[in-house]
Amino acid sequence: MKLTVIGPWGGYPKVNEASSGYLLESDDFSLLIDCGSGVLAKMQNFIQPENLDAAIISHYHPDHIADIGVLMHARLIQGFLGSTMPSLPVYGHTEDVREFEKLSHKNIMTGVAYDPNVPLKLGPFTVRFLKTNHPVPCYAMRFEKDGKSFVYTGDTSFKNELISFCQDADVLLCECNFYGDQNGQNAGHMNSFDCGNLAMEANVKSLILTHLPHYGELAKLKKEAAEKFAGQIYLASLGLTMEV
What we know:
Number of strands: 14
Order of helices and strands: EEEHEHHEHEEEEEHEHEHEE
CATH architecture: 4-Layer Sandwich
Shape: globular
CATH class: Alpha Beta
Helix content: 10-25%
Oligomer: single chain
Structural class: alpha/beta
CATH topology: Metallo-beta-lactamase, Chain A
CATH superfamily: Ribonuclease Z/Hydroxyacylglutathione hydrolase-like
Number of domains: 1
Largest sheet: 7 strands, mixed
């Protein structure tokens, strides 16, 4: 599995960058994980919209779905220009029916409901879900293939169930919207110490901090997480690539 960071920012994209969006590829299958503001423009550095095989959405906050509409238009226009492509399946939960219905448009994109209680076979990946602590329904996702595993926390404050969900993951892509001296519990986000503790308790191999704040010295997030976790830690950035 190859993971590429497209958008590392929480809330809104920093200038010339993107909020949440990640590309997971294996066996010529390309999956977009979340599609926040600015993702479509930045994604084209790595893959064209018409070449995606599927997308999956953790939840329906704008910093995770703002570019769904422009992804639809990109595929629509490429169709007008002669590209032949099937309707793109976009997987999402149905706990917000109104937002789920926005994932479908004519024969361009089709919203597909995932059942969080049942493992999902998606291309070469098996995907498992865990509901997170966030102001709206949101799901962490564990992607598995050939004995390797990658976990994306989505947006969440710390919860003990994350430890078993992330256990022994090769890569943990962990939201880190707050510094260690801040409490993100009420906002439904983790701080850097939470991320380090989760990585340590779950015995993951590598930790990527993402959904980053727009203030402060970001290097401090990595330093604080390292107080809890002795493994390799990365700050998410546009184009960061990991082989899982």
